[in-house]
Amino acid sequence: MVTILSKSHADRNVYPSAGVLFVHVLEREYFKGEFPPYPKAGDSSNDPITFNTNLKGYPDRPGWLRYIQRTPHSDGVLYGSPTAEHVGKPTIIEITAYNKRTFETARHNLVINIMSTEEFPLPYQAEFFIKNMNVEEMLASEVLGDFLGAVKNVWQPERLNAINITSALDRGGRVPLPINDLKEGVYVMVGADVQFSSCLREVETPQNQLRCSQEMEPVISCDKKFRAQFHIDWCKISLVDITKVVAVHSNRPDPGTGVLPDIGEYNPPSESLKSRDYFTDFLITLAVPSAVALVLFIILAYSMCCRREGVEKRNMQTPDIQLVHHSSIQKSTKELRSMSKNREIAWPLSTLPVFHPVSGEVVPPLHPDNYETTSMPLMQTQTNLQNQIQIPQQQSSGKWYS
To answer: Which InterPro entries match (predicted)?
Structure first.
């Protein structure tokens, strides 16, 4: 029998500033003391612990706050950038830790008190896309500090801070293949109090814009200061001066009490409504298309049925020699079909009639129709062709004889 326990910690209070990156690490070591030790000494760190975070009284977190935990054996991280709209409103986040070995839970509240400062947000903001980093790697304090140090060397501002960090997957990026240790990429937005340096402005030159349009890497003079640890996609850098951004305010109506005003009794429409004549609609919808279809049908029927030449007229206009050809082909086709029904009968000497090429006179075939073909040998000679009719030949004088 397994008993599921739930324990609560005291509330934690944090005080982030609006316009500055907020990072809070959910350490597994902090919750291990609430769970029974692992049976084997020295293996307590192997307990798989996952976290669930939500706004108190709601199923999810605020829109500006994100959470990530890669595996049950790694720490979870809450991160995001609060805005001025959240200033003065305490945000209570319920954090529940689940031990998947013992099925026990531990819970505590994180109270986020967002503060407002005059220094933030900084007016000049640049967003970099780092290709060789995941979001949890970039959220580590030492890695983020190294990146801000490289940016400060390039930008040379008096004040510099990280504003927000976003995973490329949250921007519509694709999950990388699990080969060659590929990373998903991360967007890092930083703010400063001075104008953008000439190195950052090199991305806006026509030559680099052309190289970016051709999917080529632009030439940036300060890229070597990042290349040792951070691979930046300079074609995706974004430079924004918020002092020149025109704010768009939408006029929203004041919400009411939710009760409809009392404007008197409801007066339904009168029952004595005027009748409507649908005859015109009938003509336009049915009669006119039907009449057009009938006219087209009559024209088509006249063209197909009343203007046919007919077989007799066609034969009268056809030369006799062509009719003889056609008749012989039909007769031969009929004879071949009848012969195919009984293949044991020997083939006749000839199945085509003979006709004069000039006059078209039909000459009987090599044997009459009543000639017995069943006893005819396959190889006939002049001696056994007794019933063969001689084909008429033409003399040199041009006269016919048989």
So the answer is: Cadg, Cadherin-like_sf, Sarcoglycan_alpha/epsilon, Sarcoglycan_C, Sarcoglycan_N
- Both 83 and 131 in one domain: the answer is no
Asked if 108 and 12 touch (Cβ cutoff 8 Å), the reply is yes
How far apart are the C-alpha atoms of 340 and 342, rounded to whole Å? 5
Number of compact structural domains in the chain: 2
Residue 90 has pLDDT above 90, yes or no: no
Confidence of residue 326 (pLDDT cuts 50, 70, 90): confident
- The pLDDT value recorded for residue 24 is 92
Separation CA 94–CA 53 (nearest Å): 6
Same domain, 40 and 152: no
Torsion of CA 336, 340, 344, 350, to 10 degrees: 10
CATH number at residue 149: 3.30.70
pLDDT of residue 248: 58
Name the token pair of 121: 């947000």
pLDDT (average), residues 240-253: 69
Average pLDDT over residues 105-115: 89
Weakest-pLDDT range from 38-47, 104-113, 381-390: 381-390
With 50 as the cut, is the pLDDT of residue 311 above it? yes
64: domain CATH number? 2.60.40.10
Q: Which of 234, 151, 164, 227 is nearest to 194 (CA)?
A: 151
Q: Which H or E element spans position 337?
A: helix 320-341
Torsion of CA 319, 321, 323, 327, to 10 degrees: 180
Total count of residues recorded for the chain = 402
Task: Pull the structure tokens for residue 80.
Answer: 């995001």
**Element (DSSP H or E) covering residue 209:** helix 206-213
pLDDT surpasses 50 at 3: no
- Model pTM score: 0.57
Q: Of the residues 118, 140, 166, which one is the last residue of a structural domain?
A: 118
Strand-strand pairing, 49-55 and 91-99: antiparallel
Please tell me the distance from the alpha carbon of residue 215 to that of residue 34, in angstroms, as a whole number.
53
**Does 84 map to a domain?**
yes
Q: Is the pLDDT of residue 330 over 50?
A: yes
Q: Model confidence over 332-345: pLDDT tens digits?
A: 998 888 888 766 55
CB proximity list for 203: less than 8 A, separation 6 or greater: 209, 212, 218, 220, 234, 235, 237, 239
Last residue of a domain, one of 247, 278, 295: 247
Instruction: Output DSSP code: residue 34.
Output: T
Cα–Cα distance between 281 and 286 in angstroms, integer?
8
